[in-house]
């Protein structure tokens, strides 16, 4: 075996990330161990994917956001939910810490489940205080929509997928966290298809 010595600048530590020896600020080395403590916002998720060597996801989001907001495609089928999907993809990548592989047939993945209610239906059901909900006023159809986090479900990876694999999580806990903490983004993603 060959041995290589590398000088590490003051204030940095060397760490293997996705098979690449990377210099990391010592201040970042002391970050929280639990990913849910580190990712509390979409911006936190972007920072996390960049640290994990997947910065191209954040770059793709920025470029797409400029295109969607700068063009008329924002109100077309192409623009409907595209930015929200990319945000959720970055959040899923960050929370999974890059460990979710979709090549392993038979692996279990988890995803949040939501229910949609109209104002009438929402007022008729009894919801306990533990359920996170998001209200969306639909100016086009004169019908308000409530998106309610319902539960976490799972499936085994196989030749038929019933959920977008890029929006799945490696544990039930992460799926629940993503479904409740980022309910506003999920809500916009889910309801974009109904508003336009």
Short description:
The protein has 196 residues and is of the alpha+beta class. Helix content is 39%, strand content 20%.
Q: Any overview of this molecule?
A:
The longest helix is centred in the N-terminal third of the chain and has 16 residues, at 55-70. The model has no long low-confidence stretch (mean pLDDT 76). The protein has 196 residues and is α+β, with helices and mostly antiparallel strands. The protein contains eight helices and five strands; from the N terminus they run ββαααααβαββαα. α4 (55-70) packs antiparallel against α5 (82-95). A three-stranded antiparallel β-sheet has the order 3-5-4. Strands 1-2 form a two-stranded antiparallel sheet. It has helices at 26-29, 35-38, 42-51, 55-70, 82-95, 119-124, 172-181, 183-195; strands spanning 12-17, 20-25, 108-118, 133-136, 145-156.
Strand content: 15-25%
Mean pLDDT: 76
- What is the number of beta strands? 5
Biggest beta sheet summary: 3 strands, antiparallel
Rounded radius of gyration (Å): 20 Å
Q: What letter string, H or E per element, gives the SSE order?
A: EEHHHHHEHEEHH
Individual helix count: 8
Contiguous runs where pLDDT drops below 50 for at least 5 residues: none
Q: List the strand order in the largest sheet.
A: 3-5-4
Which overall shape is indicated by the principal axes computed on the Cα atoms? elongated
Helix content: 25-40%
Question: Helix- and strand-based class?
Answer: alpha+beta
Distance between the termini: 61 Å
Assembly type: single chain
């Amino acid at each position: 075996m060959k041995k290589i010595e590398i000088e590490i600048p003051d204030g940095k530590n060397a760490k293997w990330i996705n098979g690449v020896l990377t210099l990391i600020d010592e201040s970042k080395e002391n970050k929280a161990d639990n990913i849910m403590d580190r990712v509390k916002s979409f911006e936190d998720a972007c920072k996390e994917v960049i640290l994990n060597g997947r910065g191209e996801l954040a770059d793709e989001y920025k470029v797409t956001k400029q295109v969607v907001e700068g063009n008329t495609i924002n109100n077309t089928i192409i623009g409907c939910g595209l930015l929200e999907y990319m945000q959720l993809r970055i959040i899923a990548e960050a929370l999974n810490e890059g460990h979710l592989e979709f090549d392993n047939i038979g692996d279990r993945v988890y995803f949040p489940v939501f229910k949609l209610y109209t104002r009438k239906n929402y007022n008729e059901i009894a919801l306990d205080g533990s359920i996170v909900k998001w209200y969306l006023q639909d100016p086009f159809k004169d019908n308000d929509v409530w998106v309610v986090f319902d539960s976490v479900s799972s499936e085994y990876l196989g030749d038929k997928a019933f959920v977008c694999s890029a929006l799945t999580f490696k544990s039930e806990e992460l799926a629940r966290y993503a479904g409740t903490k980022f309910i506003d983004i999920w809500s916009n993603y889910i309801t974009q298809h109904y508003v336009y």
